[in-house]
Write the structure tokens for this entry.
Amino acid sequence: MTIIEVENLRKCFWTGQVAFPALNGVNLTVEEGEFLVLAGRSGSGKTTLLNMIGGLEVPDQGSIRVKGDDLGSRTRDQRALFRLRHIGFVFQAYNLIRVLNARENVAFVCQLQGHDRRACLEGADRWLARVGLGELQKRRPDQLSGGQQQRVAVARALASKPDIVLADEPTANLDSATGRELIALMKELNREYGTTFVISSHDPAVIAAAGRLVRLHDGRVTGSPGNLQDATASEVRCPAGTLTLTGRLLLAIKELRERNNKPENRAP
């Protein structure tokens, strides 16, 4: 069953007057239970695509449906509620809450979902044991190694029983051995629970572990059976509506200067 459907997805970011096309007409489908890796060098659009799937960003053009829900048409609050119910995140920088211990971090999303605190903490204990940290539940993030923090992040992502886990460069801050252990754990959890994993990475070990590999280059899908894009497709046109306020002001000043410099508009 298809769980993620991306169609002609386009996204631009602006710095002043300069537009950066991050996604250029991406088409992608992800089936329930897949272990999919998005590969590409920095700037290829991997993180932007993950953010779109997670509802952290909305497209300039195109559509994205997750579990049949068109996220691009939802408000920010509606997308946040959707994430809370259906999506777990594993971030490159771990994003653990520094004042909470490992147990409390893992239980945090469960409590946000409105479940009983005691039940959430008991569930956190089980998940920490599952990722090999059962004896470190009382330690705060600054008392854990990078690999241990990322295991806590994986436990937190799965403790809320999401349909999809999105992991952005999860091994980037880990040594190679710890990174391989983390990916092996994520693959094991994928097989055991059937949770869909979508991972962005340029780590060869992560790419080698992919159930399916999708390559991105300059905001396009360039290599994945069934998801290849037409290399002659038109380049993305960044809509002016995505300009920041500063960008719009700078563009207006530029247009005014150009208009005033036209011979017919110059003062005698």
About this structure: Residues 68 and 157 are 21 Å apart (CA to CA). Confidence is low (pLDDT under 50) at residues 225-234.
